[in-house]
Structures are given as C-alpha cells and as structure tokens.
Amino acid sequence: MALRSGFVAVSLLLALAASEARASSLERFSEFISETLTARGEFEQKIFDHKRKLLQESRGVLAFSRPGKFRWTYVKPYAQLIVGDGSRVWIYDEDLKQVTVKKLDQALGSTPAALLAGNNEAMGAFRLSDKGARDGLEWLEALPREKEGNFEKIRMGFGPAGLEVMELADSFGQTTVLRFESLEHNPPVALQINTCKRAPGFVLQCGA
Predict the structure, then answer these.
(1) How far apart are CA 138 and CA 26, in angstroms?
(2) DSSP code at position 202
(3) Most-buried pick from 41, 89, 102, 139 (CB within 10 A)?
(4) Which residues constitute the domain of residue 55?
(5) Can you give the CATH number for the domain in which 98 is found?
(6) Cβ atoms of residues 97 and 80 within 8 Å
(7) Taking a C-beta distance cutoff of 8 angstroms, is the pair 72, 11 a contact?
(8) What end-to-end distance do the CA atoms of the chain give, in Å?
(9) pLDDT greater than 50 at residue 57
(10) Rounded to an integer, what distance in angstroms lies between the CA atom of residue 142 and that of residue 111?
(11) 190 contacts: CB under 8 Å, gap ≥ 6
C-alpha cells in the first residue's frame, strides 16, 4: 500500500503551487503546471482505514524536474524508491529485490505523480474541481477519468506557502494522507535516474 500511495503521491507532491492566499485551488494548480519546473522537500505519510484508524506511518524525501522526471524515496520505516525518467516509471522494492517498469503515459490513470510531473496535456486524465476552504486550506479535487487506477479520489490542500496536504481515497475505504515539509520551489535539481541495468541483483518486471 505504501508503494502504491507513494507512486501516486510522488509524483502529486509536484502540485507545489505557491500563489496569493485569495487564489482558488484551481488557479494555484494551473500556476504550478506553468511556473514550477523543479521542486524538492520532505513528506510524512499516514494511511487510515474507513474508521480513521491509523494503519501505517512513513517518512521520506522527494524531488522532481519537468518534464516527467521525479524521485520519491521512503526512508522510514523501510527503504523504497519510485522513479520517473521522463518516459517510464521505475518502482524499486528493496524487500523483494524487484523492480517494475511502466510507460509513463500508461501510468497516468493510477499515478498522479506522473501527472503532476508532466504537462497540461497530462491533466486531461483527471477531472479537476475546486472544493473551497477547509481547515485553513483551499482544496482541489482530482477524479481519474479511467476507473482502472488505484485511487478513486485525490484532494490537494493549498496554504499560503503552496501545497501542504494531499488526501488519496482508494476503493478499499482507506485514505492516505501526505503532509509536505520544507518544499523548495525551482531549486537546482540534478536527478540521478537509476535503471534496471544499474540495479544488479534486482528482478526486472517490465510493463507493456
């Protein structure tokens, strides 16, 4: 579940739209797509069941560089890595010593990370709507047009500094909550994108 959430998530962390407090969530998201070329920071992830019972907690770091390059790394409680190299998405599972590869465009329906690291055309995979203010944040809702993805609904909460919270609801009644910390907008980012050829000892599973 953490892997799936991070994939989606990795990549939605990319919605770092910092704009005026009076701007709607749709305006902030639009500005992010057009103005934010790189970003990096830290995140805290919590997964709750349908009764809001905490099931899992983890922390990590993230970075992205448009178009389509991102790196989502879990550091606690266990190591896990999700990478987008601009054309494919690579999912490294340290415990299983396995790496799964998917084409970036084929992963859009289930990976908002790939969407947010992409461009305006990629936004067509989601129906976006402004959900107003809650808990001091302006909320955007993204509903995937295709029903084959892992998440049924994604919400992003924007504060004065930009994206602060993401909520991802899946078909099992679980909700993944991501809180972003120390996010930097347009810093110099040199992503080292590892591929299967650079991952000796891993079993390769490539998607179509």
Answers:
(1) 9
(2) P
(3) 89
(4) 2-206
(5) 2.50.20.10
(6) no
(7) yes
(8) 22
(9) yes
(10) 12
(11) none
pLDDT category at 141 given cuts 50, 70, 90 is very high
User: Rounded to whole angstroms, what are the CA distances from 102 to 68, 75, 158, 183?
Assistant: 13, 23, 30, 27
CB 49 within 8 A of CB 55: yes
Question: pLDDT-derived band of residue 102, with 50, 70 and 90 as boundaries?
Answer: confident
Which position has the token pair 């709607």? 24
Contact 117, 64 (CB under 8 A): yes
Mean pLDDT, the chain, whole residue set? 77
CA–CA gap between residue 44 and residue 42 (Å, rounded): 7
Residue among 15, 85, 54, 67 nearest 175 (CA): 54
Which residue, among 72, 161, 68, has the nearest Cα to 107 in the 3D structure?
Answer: 68
Displacement of CA 17 from its chain's centroid (Å)? 14
- pLDDT winner (highest mean) among 47-51, 109-113, 152-156: 47-51
What total of structural domains would you count in the chain? 1
Output the CA angle 203-195-36, nearest 5 degrees. Answer: 135
Identify the helix (H) or strand (E) that includes residue 119.
none
